[in-house]
Amino acid sequence: MTTADLDPDRARAFAERMLGTLNESFLAMLISIGHQTGLFDAMAALPPSSSHEIARAAGLDERYVREWLGGMVTGGIASYDPAAGTYALPAEHAASLTSGAGAANLATQMLWVACMGEVEQAVVDAFRRGGGVPYAAYQRFHGIMSRVNGQTFDETLVQRTLLLVPGLIERLERGVDVLDVGCGSGHAVNLMARAFPESRFTGYDFSPEGIEAGRAEAAAWGLANTRFAVQDAAELDESDAYHLITSFDAIHDQARPRTVLRRIAQALRPDGHYLMVEPRASSRLEENLDHPLGPFFYAISTMHCMTVSLALAGEGLGTVWGEQKARELLREAGFAEPELHAIEGDIVNSYYVARLA
Asked: Is the CB of residue 57 less than 8 Å from the CB of residue 45?
């Protein structure tokens, strides 16, 4: 195709889109900084204020705050009154950017942009040589994942997610054994343990840092019904041990997901349930064209989920392994056809409730 064959309007529109992408990408980094420094919370609590007043409220250097505010204003996040020299964060914007927004705080998700940028060159190298980038290369991943998941767990885990399993709340209140596979920092385990003191909760993860964080939180909360251990899920060797096994956004990262699911099935009691939470998507690209998080899912998969599995010579399922593949692997592991659920307002996750076949 020559330049003469180009549709000029289409070319111009695409160039404008690329400029928008450039601006939005860097705006995402500024939003990440605003989240980490508490600037959004400070602005939400202030009337229209000068950069000096905002910096003082947040305990930050004014020159940096002023430059950051320039990005917020030109990016349409904050408003500016040039006559008064004051900046304001509209309440409608604060609803998606402050700690008070809970799970709706999208500023937390912006942390991924810089986090993935830290390993970009390693991923580029993996494109050329194959293999993957090991989990250890992601210095901030564990902390960000804990923060992102924590927002959701606090609002929905006990109040909504566990209700998806028939009769589960009553059983938890009476006292059962629960395992969370790939528990990360253990926050979900501790939330459940605090809500259901008669039940016994175990958290397994291959990250020593995550396990220590779970233990520390359990100790701070005075919990006596939790147990945490460093454990490769593919090496789990327990039988008929748990009434409920959960995994939250953990299976698609595994090097050997089929083995992990078989081990989970083995560890589940005959009358037990497996609750698997995974990214909501189709296994077919053509069915993800209108997915509201499509580019994000494929990018986070390329930059983390797929590559950490490939680094261990694993299957490399990736973030967008999708419903069809998830059902296939669950059946292969010995589960009956799972029930698939969604929680209103959660566009990220699908909730699979499975029992043994």
From this structure: yes
